[in-house]
Structure formats: structure tokens, C-alpha cells
Amino acid sequence: MSFLETIGAILVALIVLAGAALGLQKAFTGVKLNDTEQNLIVLRMQTQQLFSGSPGYTGLDNTMALNAGLVPKQFVKGTELVNPFGGTITLAASSDGSSFTITLTGVPREESTKLATFQADAWLGVSVNGTDVTGGSVSDIQSACSSSNNTIIFAAR
Q1: CATH number of the domain that 79 lies in?
Q2: Which of 50, 78, 90, 151 could disulfide-link 103, Cβ–Cβ 3.0 to 4.6 Å?
Q3: What is the pLDDT of residues 20-44, one digit of tens each?
Q4: What is the pTM assigned to this prediction?
């Protein structure tokens, strides 16, 4: 085999390897998105269940949620709440205590659009980077997810 053939074979192998790595990265991103969606459901439902006998969500914060066992283990890193994309998660009661929010930071653009449209009817409201996208079109939501590091706030009752 000549030197040029060897170089050609190495280049083809590198192209195949790069394609496989890209496919693997997309698969991991899909898993992160699915895990986030499932864990958001669990977090919302467990919070609603804990406060079901209470007049409101007053006092809800990350510490209370951790101590009460509301947070899915995939969202916990030590004493912090983190999402699979490396950002933070913050739980908070509304000012009047009638609802609560789950805030996710550091969400990549593509996943931000998908998360903001996830179970739209189940949320009281959704905002992306400070823009209310509740009931908005996918193109409006995609426009709100303008950065590579988005913040999504889900409101629930």
C-alpha cells in the first residue's frame, strides 16, 4: 500500500469516526431531553401532592424540596439542583403563594424550544428568557430561545 493510499484510508476512517461521534452526541442530547421532561413531570406532581392539603405553596424553595424528597435524583448534585444540561434548577412559590415556578437555566437552544412546548396544557404558564410563550406558536417559542444558554420558567398550580 502506498503512502497516499494509507493517508486516504486514515481520512476515510476519521470521517466515519466523526460521523459516529456526531450520532452519539445527538443520542445523548435526546436522552438528556427525555430525562428532563420526565423529571419535570415528577417534580411538578410531587410538589402538588405535598402541598395538596395546604392553602398554598408559601415556603417552597430548593431546600424545602430537597428535604421533603420532592426532587428526582437525576436533578440533585450534592446539595444543589441541576439539570442535565449543566444549568441550575430553582423552585419558588409565587408572591401570593397560589402557584409555584420551576426555573431551568443553561438550556441549549434546540432543547429549549422542545422543553418550552412540552406538555403546554399542563403548565399555568411558560416563559423563555423573560418572554411569555404560553400558548404561543412554535415559531414564537423558537424566536424566544435565541441563545445557546436559555432560561425557561414553568409555572404550575
Answers
A1: 3.30.1690.10
A2: 90
A3: 555 545 444 468 999 999 999 999 9
A4: 0.80
